[in-house]
Specification:
The protein is mainly alpha-helical. The chain contains eleven helices and no strands. The longest helix is centred in the N-terminal third of the chain and has 37 residues. It is elongated, with a radius of gyration of 23 Å.
Amino acid sequence: MTTSLTLATAPVVQRWRPRPGAIVGALMLGTVLLLTALVPLLPGYDPMGQDLRAVLLPPFTDPAHPLGTDALGRDLLSRLALASAVTLGMTVLIVIMNAVLGSLVGILAGYYGGRLEALITLVSNVTLAMPVVLLLIAICAVLQPSAGLTILVLGCTWWVGYARVTRNIAAALRRQDFVVSPLTQGADSVWVLTRHIVPNVWPHTLIIAATDVATIVLITSSLEYLGLGVQPPVPSWGSMIFDGQRHLASDPCVALLPGLMLLLAVGGVQFLSQQFTAETRGGLLRKGGMR
């Protein structure tokens, strides 16, 4: 009987050969993560404190505010660190929710087939046809906009890509000998799913998740720019760009600094996801695909 394929973590790490793009991506994303982690440890960290005597200070002019201040005299360095934590935290939660929900739905549809697959396919097509931004605007017209609402809406509407990929894989695997044989010998479906289907599906789920992170960052930042995400006074990249655009002529750094953080995060994730995707797919091919 042929055994199922699992992509072990150790072989992937051993095969890892950093490319120039991956190194650049690690530096870009590492800058954002270091800022997010280290700035809150500094003694002057205060993202909410206002000082109307120090309004719109340019960067590197005041030791107390290394990156300057905004229109309310709030420290930009502190607010950038908190905004990075907020936006990246929301992104991670949304990606995890979509990956888990989409993979679960896709595996069930592909493995069991029949009416369940037809129902899930119908739901996924309807979900895919709904414009996320318009849906969120409609919900915000009834409910108050918040970070939790954004996470819930995006976490329940962006799973279709995961479901379609995992459904195809599960449908192909259910006819394989290593899946059929345990069933004929009395194994239940839960055992087969956890031992043979899921280990073959999760590497592909990780590939989609790695490429989805940058997209979700851009979507959440766009919604924050429109005022549909995190609400003031809590900062986010999108809301900081929106507030700073009013002062582009007098102090462009108020808008450019969060834009730079967004660029570093998205670019870094894109470079790293390309490396991860190439290595993971290469590992699957060297292992002979799904058997």
